Amino acid sequence: MDIGVVIKKYRKEAGMTQEEMANRLGVTTPAVNKWENSNSNGTGCSR
């Protein structure tokens, strides 16, 4: 299973928007979007 699918699944189960998740994690909303769409691996390095 792709990590982006897992992130989105648990975010939705928690009833959070991407913006709410970003605020809780101290990152930007576009960062969460990138993670969920597998455009970034979350380390600051592109795949």
Automatic annotation (TrEMBL):
Alphabetical list of SUPFAM superfamilies matching this protein: lambda repressor-like DNA-binding domains
Keyword Acyltransferase in record: no
Keywords: DNA-binding
Gene Ontology MF terms in the entry: DNA binding
Tree of life domain: Bacteria
One family name in Pfam for this protein: HTH_3
HTH cro/C1-type domain span: 7-41
Signal sequence interval, chain numbering: none
PROSITE patterns: HTH_CROC1 (PS50943)
Protein name: HTH cro/C1-type domain-containing protein
Source organism of this protein record: [Bacteroides] pectinophilus ATCC 43243
Taxonomic lineage of the native organism: Bacteria, Bacillati, Bacillota, Clostridia, Eubacteriales
